[in-house]
Design a protein that fits this description.
This protein is about 10% helix and about 45% strand. It is built from two helices and ten strands; from the N terminus they run αββββαββββββ. Strands 1, 2, 3, 4, 5, 6, 7, 8, 9 and 10 form a ten-stranded antiparallel beta sheet that branches. The radius of gyration is 16 Å and the shape is globular.
Length: about 150
């Protein structure tokens, strides 16, 4: 069973797939080689970020507020972040979202990582369990693989 001490530190994302409850295949919302970082602190805070490997840069000579909305929307769709408190209960890791790029996430429990996880030295594989959001998505869960930095 995983403990809080097992999680402490930073984890580098290696893969992230999305499974669906109504079919057997998986998708890769941020591509097959996403970039990401998951941080857990000793005082109960966490932060998770994920992005596509290749992201278009904004023009350097244009102030952010003058960048076209379509470019901002593309940047939004190629990156995701949330942060908040976490706790470990009977081997499950529960994230309580207080900040997020998605304005609908704060105040929710983003997901609970079930005990169907494998922690081997500096590598972890997790599967998302409960998703406690007012408008739950139509997928069956996430599979996340990472290594400790």
């Amino acid at each position: 069973m995983i403990s809080k001490e097992d999680l402490l530190g930073s984890w580098h994302l290696e893969s992230w797939t999305m499974g669906y409850s109504n079919r057997d295949d998986f998708s890769y919302p941020f591509g097959e080689e996403p970039h990401g970082l998951l941080l857990y602190t000793d005082d109960g805070w966490m932060s998770a970020s994920i992005s596509r490997k290749e992201r278009a840069a904004f023009p350097e000579d244009v102030p952010f507020r003058k960048i076209p909305e379509a470019d901002k929307a593309e940047a939004f769709s190629s990156y995701f972040h949330y942060a908040g408190r976490y706790r470990v209960v009977d081997g499950d890791v529960i994230h309580y979202v207080s900040q997020s790029l998605n304005p609908n996430f704060p105040g929710t429990i983003a997901f609970s990582l079930s005990t169907r996880r494998h922690l081997r030295g500096r590598n972890i594989t997790t599967r998302a369990g409960q998703y406690n959001h007012p408008h739950p998505p139509a997928y069956g869960g996430y599979r996340i693989r990472g290594s400790k930095r």
